[in-house]
Design goal:
- The protein is α/β, with parallel strands linked by helices.
- The chain folds into four domains: 81 residues, Barwin-like endoglucanases (Beta Barrel); 47 residues, Transferase, Pyrimidine Nucleoside Phosphorylase, Chain A, domain 3; 201 residues, 3-Layer(aba) Sandwich (Pyrimidine Nucleoside Phosphorylase, Chain A, domain 2); 78 residues, Pyrimidine nucleoside phosphorylase-like, C-terminal domain (Aldehyde Oxidoreductase, domain 3, Alpha-Beta Complex), CATH 3.90.1170.
- It has 18 helices and 18 strands.
- Strand 3 and strand 4 form a beta hairpin.
Length: 482
């Protein structure tokens, strides 16, 4: 059949399109799996059927198929039906509540990485894990399968890492902890996410200074040169199955605990981390809302770490309010620089030093917190940060904010009793975060502070006045004063 290249992409699964008459002659149906072969190369694709998109004798190829086989319009290819992979039957077992063994989980992940499963089939797997859960052995096997079917960094035995499970605005500790640890001689290949529902992710914030998108080989080169990196964890080479699962979870906000654990641990396992600190913020408007859930997750992380040969410690931290003052890409970057330059933002500094100190002690240092504070206040951490930024093809520069600003003031005397993390996220997203990097919110007060009538509680920044106006109705819900 003749190739017709289609300007369409799924950003993952390979898809081809046949004319209805051709599909009927070949006894093929929509969502069948087919093998597309060009000479001695072939790929597996999901079939779609159309009356008008392609003519008889043509096979329409989505971008993923065309790129995989280096196809050109009117190239001749063969198309044939292939059976469903065994992994589909294992997915059905999970939907039925059965426990999956290591070979079955590996088969599912292998087909997922090789784009052998449709999004519908992956959704059923996520749904099965959400409905029936994964025991510790399944989580361990899922973690190992994700790593086995991806590339890994090879950086030696001193590799350490940290991870925050999210739910608290700013909390940009990684950009301070990594240079502290790297300056102390530890290896810290930190991979981080971009914002999904928050105003900024670590990678978005780091992008204010440097590139964050690198191949595995480039990451290894940066780390060997500087001891650390702050890069985007979405590269297809590292734990790629994890990103495919997240893509499915996101629209329905599904976050099965077992997949969440495997997602985090596979990223850390793939960078070669031997020692890992997990930060679990707890608060009424944080991701984890009570201590019971936090302690449950703490035990699961530690036990999973043992199965994976990793030393894991868990910090249960205060998630009642943002850590730092700025929320939004540029504002969070400014907070990071202020800490590294010893110019303030005390809560972000205190938490970063505490966490860096724990990791230093896990690695054999005595008086870890004091050592971390010494590295920070001496300027060594800032020098190391600039070194990492330079290695990532960037430059530390002055942070600019939007000129459109609105100060929200207190309407009475009183005390700050609560700050709503979720409302801050909502306001900042309306203001344009994370796309509008110079937009966001700057908090002038924290929980427990006394305020007077007319005092500025926070300021919001927007790219244009329309977005600012859209946010105004929600501002009074951010801070509660009694």
């Amino acid at each position: 059949m003749r190739v017709k290249k289609l300007d369409l992409s799924t950003s993952g699964v390979r898809v081809v399109v046949l004319n209805d008459e051709d599909a009927s002659k070949l006894n093929l149906y929509g969502l069948d799996r087919v093998k597309i072969k060009k000479r001695n190369r072939c790929v597996i694709a999901i079939l779609d059927i159309s009356d008008g998109m392609v003519k008889k004798g043509e096979v329409g190829c989505f971008k993923e198929v065309s790129d995989s086989l280096n196809l050109k319009n009117r190239d001749e290819v063969k198309i044939e039906y292939i059976k469903k992979p065994r992994s589909i039957y294992y997915i059905k077992e999970k939907l039925d509540g059965k426990v999956l063994d290591k070979p079955k989980i590996n088969e599912i992940v292998k087909d997922l990485v090789e784009d052998g499963l449709s999004e519908i089939e992956v959704t059923y797997f996520v749904s099965g894990c959400y409905r029936n859960g994964l025991n510790l052995e399944e989580v361990s096997n899922l973690t190992k399968a994700i790593v086995k079917n991806s590339k890994r960094l090879k950086l030696g035995k001193k590799v350490v890492d940290k991870h925050g499970i999210g739910g608290v605005p700013n909390n940009r500790t990684s950009m301070i902890i990594v240079p502290i640890l790297a300056a102390a001689g530890l290896i810290v290949p930190k991979t981080s996410s971009r914002a999904i529902t928050s105003p900024s992710g670590t990678s978005d914030t780091m992008e204010m200074f440097s590139n964050v998108d690198f191949t595995v080989k480039e990451i290894e080169k940066i780390v060997r040169k500087t001891n650390g990196c702050l890069v985007w964890g979405g590269t297809k080479e590292l734990a790629s199955a994890d990103d495919k699962l997240i893509k499915i979870e996101r629209p329905l906000s599904l976050d099965p605990e077992g997949i969440m654990l495997a997602s985090i641990m596979s990223k850390k396992f793939s960078v070669g981390a031997k020692k890992l600190l997990i930060d679990i913020p707890v608060g009424k408007t944080a991701k984890i809302k009570n201590m019971k859930k936090a302690l449950h997750l703490k035990n699961r992380f530690i036990n999973l770490g043992k199965k994976l040969g990793m030393k894991v410690k868990v910090l249960i931290s205060d998630g009642r309010q943002p850590v730092g003052n700025g929320v939004g890409v540029a504002l969070e970057a400014r907070d990071v620089l202020r800490v590294l330059k010893n110019e303030g933002v005390e809560d972000l500094k205190e938490k970063s030093v505490l966490m860096a100190g724990i990791i230093l002690e896990m690695s054999g240092f005595k008086n870890g917190k004091e050592k971390a504070l010494e590295i920070l206040e001496s300027g060594d951490a800032y020098d190391k940060f600039k070194e990492i930024v330079k290695a990532q093809k960037g430059k530390v520069r002055e942070i600019k904010l939007s000129k459109i600003k609105y100060d929200f003031k207190s309407s009475k005397n009183g005390k700050v009793v609560s700050i709503d993390n979720k409302m801050i996220n909502q306001v900042c997203r309306i203001l344009g975060c994370p796309r509008d990097k110079e937009s966001g919110m700057y908090l002038d007060v924290k929980v427990g502070n006394k305020v007077i009538n007319g005092q500025i509680l926070f300021s919001v920044y927007a790219k244009n006045r329309k977005k600012l106006k859209e946010s105004l109705g929600l501002l009074k819900k951010v801070i509660k004063i009694d």
